[in-house]
Amino acid sequence: MELYLQMGHGMMDHAKTLISKWGGGTCILSPRDMKIEQIERFSQEIHNLNGKIAIDPQFYQPYSDHDKLTNHSFWPESFETSNFFSGSGISEMINDLLNNYNLKTLSDIFIIPGRFTDIIDDDWKKYNDILITEVLKKNISTPVYMTLSLSSEVIYSEEMVHELLEHIEDWNVTGYYIVAQHPKDNYLIADASWLAGLIDLCAGIKLLNKKIIVGYANQQQLYLALAKVDAIATGTWLNVRAFSLDKFEKAEEDQQSRRSTWYYCPQSLSEYQIPFMDIAKRSGIIDNLKAESLFDSSYADILFTGAQPTSVEFSEREAFRHYLQCLHIQTDLTHKNTFDETYLYLTQMFDAAGKLASYFKSRGVRAKYKDFSDVYEDTISALDLFKTTRGMIFKHKWNSL
Questions:
Q1: Same-domain pairing of 158 and 279
Q2: Which candidate, 239, 264, 240, places its Cα nearest to that of 318?
Q3: Is residue 300 within 8 Å of 318, Cβ to Cβ?
Q4: Residue 45 has what DSSP assignment?
Q5: Which of 131, 165, 138 is CA-nearest to residue 59?
Q6: Pairing of strands 2-6, 231-234
Q7: Which one of 64, 129, 207, 309 is least enclosed by Cβ atoms within 10 Å?
Q8: For residue 326, which phi and psi values (nearest 5 degrees)?
Q9: CB atoms inside a 10 Å sphere around CB 39
């Protein structure tokens, strides 16, 4: 599995720094956060660094009043479902996306705009069939990914997930870009049923021999490696690590609430505000939180020099780059030769992380809503269920998926 960068507010410099360090990588661009001139310039810069780009049209809410989105030329002036699909509206949008965005920027992936849904019904099927047909008329030379933007209710429903899988079986696309709403808009998810639903959806798509990118992800979605997901995408702020429809419906200041500097401990899969790093120092366990050398991240070294962490200048910029660097290594480490090796690696990683995070908590070092100890049992439960229901076929097909 690979880590893609889910571009959001203020991420361009981070992306260029990390793509350069990694010697490559893929950025999923956000029209909500970039004007067309910025998209063109940034795409060229990433390509010059041996990176790749894709443009997410973010057409999740067609009735959006978010000026930064609706000012883009591909956005329809008005959206009335019947007129949009029976007239020239959909063709004009796809043409604009293709010619003025994807071809102009030499985009490496064409992402088909997909509308957010909380039900898989005949209207959803018809809407997306028309989209697919319109895109295939263009004979696009780059890989084409269909957006599946799904509510938590869809992910919970085994019936709807299987109905979706049955309907998309004949869609002639390279893969799927899955954007799944977290239950109650939580960051980490203490809900084994939702986690099981998402990995089952991914498994069904992989068995159709399609590629998968799961967008708006965080460290918990490492578990999707057991379904042979090709990439997860994440970024800096919370709104690019957990999908929320609000981000695309109305303009608002980025991260007004919860804005704080966090340190990511990859061993515990948890994130800690800097005052709690002071507690770790006073408790004598701060070295246990330091990222191991295999993560190749020096961005947070200043926190472990012996000084009180709140007294040093650990910036937001370094915190974000440290998080993304560590997660880049963690996604790469999920590459294993067999299903059983992957299952063993993931369950051991999650179990160790949960226990370590619990130990830190017992010593006063708390991660609040970013504490993996609150979700690790649900995560392992979803893996265990997946092994029971899909394990046999994935063992057999592992090297061909």
A1: no
A2: 264
A3: yes
A4: H
A5: 131
A6: parallel
A7: 129
A8: -65, -45
A9: 23
pLDDT of residue 258: 54
Decide: helix, strand or coil at residue 25: strand
C-alpha 194 chain-centroid distance = 16
Q: Show the tokens assigned to 43.
A: 């795409």
Task: Output phi, psi for 205, to 5 deg.
Answer: -70, -40
User: Does residue 78 form part of some domain?
Assistant: yes
Quick check: is 398 in a domain?
Answer: no
Distance CA 56, CA 29 (A): 6
DSSP state letters, 224-283: GGGGT--EEEE-SSGGGTSB-THHHHS---TT-SS---EEEETTTTEEEEHHHHHHHHHH
d(CA 200, CA 358): 29
Amino acid type, 39: I
Does the pTM surpass 0.70? The reply is yes
Residues 6+ apart with CB under 8 A from 340: 395
Tokens matching residue 140: 């696009």
Q: Identify whether the C-beta of residue 319 lies closer than 8 Å to the C-beta of residue 263.
A: yes
In total, how many domains does the chain have? 2
DSSP letter for each residue of 278-337: HHHHHHT-HHHHSPPGGG---TTGGGGSSS-GGGS---HHHHHHHHHHHHHHHHHHT--S
| Pairing assessment for the beta strands 262-265 and 270-273 based on DSSP bridges | antiparallel
Separation between Cα atoms, residue 204 and residue 386, nearest integer Å: 12
Do residues 20 and 135 both lie within one domain?
yes
Question: Which residues are bridge partners to 51 per DSSP?
Answer: 25
Q: How many Å separate Cα 379 from the centre of its chain?
A: 17
pLDDT along the chain (401 residues), means of 10: 97 98 98 97 98 97 90 87 74 95 98 97 94 94 98 98 97 98 96 98 98 98 98 97 89 57 98 98 98 97 98 97 98 98 98 98 98 98 98 98 96
What phi and psi, each to the nearest 5 degrees, are found at residue 26? -125, 135
Same domain (yes/no): 90, 162: yes
C-beta atoms surrounding 292 within 10 Å: 11
- Phi, psi for 251 (deg, rounded to 5): -80, 135
Same domain, 266 and 240: no
Of residues 321, 320, 324, 304, the one with CA closest to residue 312: 304
Q: Which two tokens mark 385?
A: 């269920």
